[in-house]
């Protein structure tokens, strides 16, 4: 069943690339959307088959692939992977839907989109470290191409920077996985926490450090974040949606699955420092967002800040905080995708994202009032307003982390307050006041300038409406996601204690 | 996303030219029109004034009804129903399937507040006070609530009567203007009006013809008739109502919520009402339909009565149906410049064709006074075809 989540996108991508003859852009788009829709439906089928009462991997599929190096094709899904697979399949479809006016190479574009989706599914479902690494690297090149071919004016720089950072991330992760195998003397790359317990704490810390930095680049956490704002600024809207909504989650998923999952003891030792790192990342991301005048960079920096909450939750590693981490991954996926979609609409209509230029976009007839309304909803959700997804996730993270790391949690709460500051700045500057889309000059002339923005068609807003509905639904009815993930996150939170107990009982060296 | 070479995108902004003070003086003295003479302008102005005429007809009927039938009614909850209290009418009122009479009241209050011209002078006169006292005496004898209020607030009822007088006078003024605008549309269809200059001339002739029409107002209380604005007050259409209306609504206006009202706290609004520039000729059409923007009500009303020809024309520009009310407001502003143009042309102290230097100088002084005010108005719309 899980293999279909790889088969549909990869076979679809291959089919699109190899289809004989010329295909019109719209036909290619429709075919890709059909495949992405099928993939989403299949992920819902997996959800129906998923048993939330079980903490471990389910619906497993495996066969020995390259046995000699420990590379097994082994897939499984648990309460951590299930929501992320759903977010991936949903947001890739959204990304495909909001791809319009594609000027060149539509076949390659949609094939890459499908390829990324399949690779991300593979990474989330892998039960083998090498298989995870394979899929982790597999999404790298398509994304690099998506930025460097369909990006903005400075796309070459941004794409190369992304490639270098993420390649280093991959090297560190692979190094850690190989190191684990080397030091334990096993060629088994399955995900088992007890493996690392055979190692000394020093070795564990070195390997965990490599993994941490590798995933911190991907998430990204300060100071490894500098590729993200550039990548977002130059990426087209659909790619930004994927990048923020899905691809960053590979990093946070890795943090929970591999850093905490493989090295629970070392993780427990480092956790106070990690909580401090989380607070620095949250505050830095938020303060940097305040200083931005490009809407997209502001949203990108908000991602840097909000990813810090997941590190805090993982550092605390309590059942509540771990559940909060999953909620934060899902809600950030939906909210950031929504915000990037809306920034994309603003840019398409006004030809600028400059907060020093844009004014009054909530103007009822000549502005972008519905886009503005959704933007206000999105920023409220991001700032953690009750009734929306952001509130649930931030509440769970803070509630679960406060007892373990009070200072770091309080600083992260300040970051949550700062989210309201920078997003209110965004909304106030761009959406309130007299409508304007040109740089301010003469006040009299500006006050007279007639603005003739093209309207936003319903079809352009539908993806954002769907995401906004998801954000509210998750905020009002969080129980569904809670049920899916709770058993797994609770089990993960108990890992350090379980390993310590096994060691105390003499069952582990 | 990189775009392939396509047809150039249309500009997102339009910056209309603004004639300077001297240009305006020369335009007015030469008898040229302020608004550029184009077929699109003619279509917009004629049709928007036709819809305005329909709306003014309803406003006029209601204002006169309010002043006569709701006179000193302390709870005039049914004042917008024009005396028709049928369930169907009340239902349409409740679901807002109706004209926004609130806008007429807004204009009436602007006139009362700015209080210029002969009407206002009369409302502060001794003769009016005498009439008022008689009306109050009769009314308080029949209404215990008013009888209780009057000694506590002696100026309250007098002020309500001033408000009613302004309401009635505005109703009479709009009666004339409504007929004039409907006639204009008919004249355009008949071919008599085929350009902006002929349109301005038509309006000027209409205003001049009605200039001397008397403005009177009487109420009936307990079977007796009481004059509020008696014939002997000598109030006339042009000097005592039309000119104060232009001053209050076209020029000065009121800073309203949603644009500049909160700027009063920052001392950005002049304490001198005469320096106000918030009227129709200065208004920014873009915020139309924003909350707290009263002209939005008028634009909604005009939208209800929009001639099909203008509606079709609007559908072809900018957002079509999506920004119809902003476009109506822009066309309306152009139309108001034409009406102002006609009023100025009709009130020059001397004929523009005269050769007497003293008369020419008087005309120039008059034109300069108008140009002084118009040069900071929204004249950028005058050469905008869209």
Characterization of the model:
The complex is a heterodimer of chains A (509) and B (386). Chain A is mainly alpha-helical and 509 residues long. Helix content of chain A is 72%, strand content 4%. Chain A has helices spanning 4-18, 25-49, 81-97, 106-125, 129-138, 140-150, 155-184, 201-218, 227-234, 237-262, 264-290, 295-316, 319-350, 369-382, 389-401, 406-431, 443-448, 458-476, 479-493, 495-504; strands at residues 58-66, 71-77, 450-451. The longest helix of chain A is centred in the middle third of the chain and has 32 residues, at 319-350. Chain A is globular. The two termini of chain A are 38 Å apart. Helices cover 57% and strands 3% of the residues of chain B. Chain B has one domain. In chain B, helix 1 packs across helix 14 (357-374), helix 2 packs antiparallel against helix 8 (154-189) and helix 4 packs across helix 10 (237-252). The A-B interface holds A 101-104, 150-152, 236-237, 350-351, 360, 363-366, 434-435, 437-438, 445, 447-455 and B 1-4, 9-16, 18, 284, 286-290, 318-319, 322-326, 330, 378, 380, 384, 386.
Labels describing this entry:
heterodimer; A: 509 residues; mainly alpha; B: 386 residues; 14 helices; disordered N terminus
């Amino acid at each position: 069943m899980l293999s279909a989540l790889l088969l549909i996108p990869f076979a679809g991508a291959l089919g699109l690339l190899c289809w004989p003859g010329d295909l019109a852009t719209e036909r290619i788009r429709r075919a890709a959307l059909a495949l992405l829709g099928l993939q989403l439906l299949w992920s819902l089928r997996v959800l129906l088959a998923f048993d939330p009462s079980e903490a471990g991997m389910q619906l497993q599929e495996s066969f020995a692939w390259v046995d000699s190096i420990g590379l097994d094709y082994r897939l499984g899904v648990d309460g951590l992977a299930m929501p992320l697979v759903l977010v991936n399949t949903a947001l890739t479809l959204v990304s495909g839907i909001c791809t319009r006016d594609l000027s060149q190479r539509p076949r390659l574009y949609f094939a890459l989109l499908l390829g990324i989706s399949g690779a991300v599914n593979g990474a989330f479902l892998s039960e083998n470290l090498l298989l995870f690494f394979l899929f982790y690297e597999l999404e790298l090149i398509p994304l690099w191409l998506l930025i460097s071919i369909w990006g903005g004016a400075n796309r070459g720089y941004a794409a190369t920077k992304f490639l270098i950072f993420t390649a280093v991330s991959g090297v560190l992760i692979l190094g850690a996985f190989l190191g684990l195998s080397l030091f334990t003397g096993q060629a088994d790359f399955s995900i088992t926490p007890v493996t690392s317990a055979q190692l000394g704490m020093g070795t564990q810390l070195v390997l965990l450090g490599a993994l941490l930095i590798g995933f911190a680049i991907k998430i990204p956490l300060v100071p490894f974040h500098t590729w993200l704002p550039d990548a977002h600024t130059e990426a087209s809207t659909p790619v930004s949606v994927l990048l923020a909504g899905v691809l960053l989650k590979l990093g946070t998923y890795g943090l929970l699955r591999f850093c905490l999952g493989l090295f629970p003891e070392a993780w427990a030792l480092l956790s106070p420092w990690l909580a401090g790192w989380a607070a620095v990342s949250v505050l830095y991301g938020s303060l940097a967002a305040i200083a931005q005048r490009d809407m997209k960079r502001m949203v990108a920096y908000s991602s840097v800040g909000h990813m810090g909450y997941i590190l805090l939750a993982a550092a605390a590693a309590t059942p509540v905080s771990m559940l909060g981490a999953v909620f934060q991954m899902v809600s950030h996926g939906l909210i950031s995708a929504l915000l990037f979609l809306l920034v994309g609409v603003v840019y398409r209509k006004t030809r600028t994202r400059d907060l020093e230029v844009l004014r009054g976009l909530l103007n009822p007839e000549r502005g972008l009032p519905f886009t503005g309304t959704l933007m206000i909803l999105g920023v409220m959700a991001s700032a953690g307003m009750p009734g929306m997804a952001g509130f649930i996730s931030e509440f769970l993270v803070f509630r679960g982390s406060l007892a373990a790391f009070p200072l770091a949690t309080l600083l992260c709460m300040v970051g949550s307050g700062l989210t309201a500051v920078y997003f209110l700045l965004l909304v106030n500057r761009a959406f309130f006041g007299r409508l304007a889309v040109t740089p301010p000059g003469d006040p009299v002339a500006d006050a007279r300038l007639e603005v003739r923005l093209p309207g936003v068609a319903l079809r352009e807003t539908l993806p954002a409406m769907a995401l906004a509905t998801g954000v509210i639904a998750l905020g009002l009815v969080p129980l569904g996601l809670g049920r899916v993930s709770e058993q797994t996150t609770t089990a993960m939170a108990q890992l350090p204690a379980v390993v310590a107990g096994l060691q105390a009982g003499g069952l582990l060296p | 996303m990189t775009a392939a070479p396509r047809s150039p995108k249309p500009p997102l902004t339009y910056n209309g030219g603004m004639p300077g003070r001297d240009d305006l003086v020369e335009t007015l003295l030469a008898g040229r029109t302020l608004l550029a003479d184009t077929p699109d302008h003619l279509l917009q102005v004629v049709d928007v004034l036709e819809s305005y005429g329909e709306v003014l007809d309803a406003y006029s009927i209601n204002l006169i009804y309010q002043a006569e039938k709701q006179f000193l009614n302390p709870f005039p909850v049914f004042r917008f129903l024009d005396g028709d209290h049928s369930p169907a009418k009340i239902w349409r009122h409740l679901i807002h399937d109706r004209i926004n009479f609130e806008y007429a009241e807004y204009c009436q209050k602007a006139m009362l507040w700015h209080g210029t011209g002969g009407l206002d002078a009369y409302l502060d006169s001794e003769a009016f006070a005498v009439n008022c006292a008689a009306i109050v005496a009769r009314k308080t004898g029949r209404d215990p609530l008013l009888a209780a209020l009057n000694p506590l607030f002696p100026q309250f009822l007098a002020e309500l009567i001033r408000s009613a007088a302004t309401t009635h006078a505005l109703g009479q003024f709009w009666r004339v203007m409504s007929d004039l605008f409907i006639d204009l549309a008919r004249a355009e269809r008949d071919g008599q009006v085929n350009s902006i200059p002929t349109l301005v001339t038509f309006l000027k002739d209409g205003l001049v013809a009605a200039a001397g029409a008397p403005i009177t107002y009487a109420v009936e209380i307990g079977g007796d008739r009481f004059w509020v604005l008696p014939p002997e007050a000598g109030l006339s259409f042009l000097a005592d109502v039309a000119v104060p209306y232009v001053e209050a609504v076209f020029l000065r206006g009121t800073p309203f919520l949603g644009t500049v009202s909160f700027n009063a706290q920052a001392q950005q609004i002049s304490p001198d009402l005469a320096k106000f520039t918030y009227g129709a000729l200065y208004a920014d059409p873009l915020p139309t339909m924003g909350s707290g923007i009263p002209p939005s009500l008028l634009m909604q009303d005009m939208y209800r009565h929009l001639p099909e020809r203008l509606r079709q024309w609007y559908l072809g520009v900018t957002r079509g149906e999506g920004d119809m009310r902003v476009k109506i407001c822009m066309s309306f502003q152009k139309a108001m410049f034409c009406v102002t143009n006609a009023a100025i042309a009709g009130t020059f102290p001397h004929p523009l064709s005269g050769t007497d230097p003293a008369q020419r100088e008087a005309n120039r002084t008059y034109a300069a006074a108008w140009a002084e005010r118009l040069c900071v108005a929204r004249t950028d719309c005058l050469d905008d075809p869209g």
